Fold these 2 entries.
Entry 1:
Amino acid sequence: MWLISVDPSTKEFAISIFKNQKVKRCLKIPADNIVELQRLFNKYSPFLLAIEYQYFFRNPKTLISLVESRTRLETIAFMCGCKGIYRIRPSNWQKLLTDKRLKRAVLKELSLKYAKKKVKKKIDHDIADSICIGFFVYQNFQKLECEVINV
């Protein structure tokens, strides 16, 4: 089964597509482009979804926008054949990179370095995070809670 991992934001989704623990494709889709999200999800259906869960923002308005964006993506995924979803907290998937508490900028660089080794091509920090989320799920799926979709 396909695994689609996502680093969400209010403007665009960084997405990595996995099959058999290998990254097959990486891309970004504008968060408001519902048609493109549907097209992507239908192409890889059935699939599991791994998405970064929200962490606390100091700005409640930004947090609300991010939750709305993530919820929109999850709803479209469910409509397009998603069989289950892993919601991964940033502090959890970042354990893939280090067991130390580091500043965000340092973690972003570690994420980019880890992901570049896996895909061997030029990627940005957001795509790197989506790749790391996917590999975290593969390495820990037996311990992770997956919300199964029964439609």
Entry 2:
Amino acid sequence: MKKRIAIFSGLIYSDRYFIYSDFPDLIKNEDVIITIYTNVKSNCVEFEKKFPNHPNLSFSYFNLKDLFYHKVTFFIRRLNDKLYDKSFFGSKTRKYFTDHMYEVKRSFVDFLYSFFLFFNSTFIRSLSRKLNCFIHLHTVKKNVELTSILKVNDVVVLNWSYNLHNQSIAAHCLKNKTPFFYHIQGFDNITTKPRFIFKPKGILTWSKRMNNDILRLYPEYKKISLNEIGNIQFDILKNDKFQISKKEFLNNIGFDENKFTITFGLGSPNLFQEEYMLLEWLANLTEDLIGEIQIIVRPHPAFKINNIENELMNFDVPIHYQNPNDDLIENDYQSTQSIKNWINTIQHSDLLINTSSTLSLDFSFFDKPVININYDSSPGMKNDNHIKAVQNTWEHFVPIINHNVLYIVNSYIEINDTVTLLLEKKDSKNEVRKKLIRDICLNDENVATANYIAFLNNL
């Protein structure tokens, strides 16, 4: 009898994998029946359009917002994060957020946090974790649809694992005695996002490095299975169904295929104001570079700023503003055109410039050089210290820095100098990029989907 698997999804980088990768073709006729439960209706439509009557994979709409929480649920979960992050088992990244980036408030709730932090200890942290579980299990709204979903499925995989809605599903799984797994899809999820509340049967990870992070931050997870499969998103980037020639891609945006193409990434999301560094650099481009380069400015889907596109029209160098939101019909829905833009931008760019984004991994996977901005040129330079802290404190990005794959720049002058160096084909980081991908993403080949299918078949 085929095992029935429910995968709860909903985010852009979750749903798009099941629609635009090789997974739907490769999972056909395997010994599983998989349903992707998503709160994005357009993704259900898109999948059915691309794979009508798939034998063992389907999408189903499920509204996560129907799950209800009391305010105490949020309080106790944040307290759990704060207690652990002030301990040996805490995330240095989240601790940095709390100590240096969040505004200090004087409300009664913040007084309560301070009170518990004063008595922080192994016992208090253990009590907080148990209280989290108890309160969450008893404040999750009874959901008839979710209960019926769990009754007809043998196992659950939660893709947006740290999210409170998915932790609610984990609570329902415990009540119904349904085994559940977490799938870590973003490299920064463990150290920047809230802590997991419930202990799963196992976790799908990218690599041994991620396993070590989990065991360091969750000592209570020593006996659960940690399954290294790699980064499944690379399967989409390598999918030739969506690739077009460099000439066609660049001509479509009015670019010259013989010029050096730079992608400048903005916002991840809105943490730093990279637009200041971008505009300052553009205003100070050397004459030699203006004639040699063309620039794709690609914001994070959550990046919000007014008039940036208009401001980019004031420069002599060719610039294309590629806003992913132009292709979003519904929030967290990526159309085929959006996927094509994403894939071909990486494939056909010669260089990425950004501020400590995990886009650095995508470009490194394709052996493309990355310039990492290590300064803030905004008025008052309020993020200057934070930008530098990413590279020596934030646990998801420090390993990237330590592999020496990035060209670190401290001014627009250094950006110009580095671009000139790369134009002269003096890039020397090819081998270290491969080592980075093998360390963080398990393999520099496209093997994650095969590993994922093997895992699902063995559940």
